[in-house]
Amino acid sequence: MSRKSFCGSADHAVSRRGFLTSMAALAGGAAFADMTALQVLGTPAVANDLRANQKRVIMLWLAGGASQLETFDPKPGVPTGGPFQSIQTSTPGIRISELMPRMARRLKDTCIIRSLNTRNADHGSAARIMMRGRMGEPSVDYPDLGAVMAREMGLEGSQVPDYVSFYTATEGRNMSPGSPGFLGARFGSMDLTTSMVPENIRRAGVSEQDHRERAELRNQLSGMFERGRSSSTLDSHNQAYRRVSGIMANEQLFDIEREPQRIRDRYGNTLFGRQALAARRLCEAGVPFIRVGRAWWDSHAQNFESHQEMVPELDHVMATLLDDLEERGLLRNTLVITIAEFGRTPNINSTLGRDHFASAWSTTLSGCGVRGGTVYGRSDAAGQRVAEGEIGAARLFATIYRALGISHTKNYYLGARPIPLTDPGTEPIREVLA
To answer: Which of 122-136, 171-185, 216-230 is predicted most confidently?
Structure first.
């Protein structure tokens, strides 16, 4: 496996690698594989090191396309504006939908981007664009943002997954799958579609002692087989075994019942709230990228009723997550992205719905590397087009990479062909960056 970069600090990278190397040398393969991430993170120096330096992303994926007009770019008083009013936020002059009072009070860490024109309003292809930051092409299978984060920010000896995706709803699940693309399956997502806990990781009917003895026997036999042999296949197999063993040992990371009741109550007893809490737990344990899918926002009919139900939940969960991350000292190095595949039309159709719309819609970035309490770009008075600061997916992704300390011009290689992280000539939005 090729060497990966971390947070950009050479001292930090050395300290983490040194820790992992020394632990592996001292404890041996089997013991290290059985060590839980919580035990590792329980070491104050390591926990503080991760808190201070490791970058992470939590993506709140509003599957189906949430309406910008009922969230972050309201247009009250115009024929296309709908029935909801706007309210003043904690930043003078910035107003958002009245359905989002909690986010209105805590905009200090969030930048609203109101000028996305991504030119694609088909669920499947638009979702792929907004997960990858670019159009696809027949000869290149591009990785999505989660796979890039796994490649760039994952720790070599990590005992936790690098990329976890919660998407337990059935609507739209197949329209927005994660993909490691040409980076390979090593950087693919752990997809949790039927449960909040990975399947088949429990040691059913096997005691802790039996599990440990089996691991020791496996390592002994593996060592005998490897003696005198050198193979990337063997290395890959051993790495996969260590990671699976580590995930088995860290099943509790996915169990939000281990959180105090007051914390669970704070997030709320909804699937979205519980998954956001699980995302925070994984983030705190060092998982670089977690996507939480909230479906289904595709409001072709009864748009206002559906958004009146779903937007307050988004407001509550998003604000709670940001508060929790901030209180734990994680927000300054965690980027929270609230995004969908597109927005909704300003025009209201005959069934009081809003249809697919990619010409002038909104997203938000919060936390790591972002200038909070700001708005970038502007749609016109009716929300029909971008009036100022138009950007596409490529510039958004260049901005995300820059906020995380990743060079957006960095090349990966597909054979001899260099593949930059973003389309050539793309620049990040300087006004968005802290």
So the answer is: 122-136
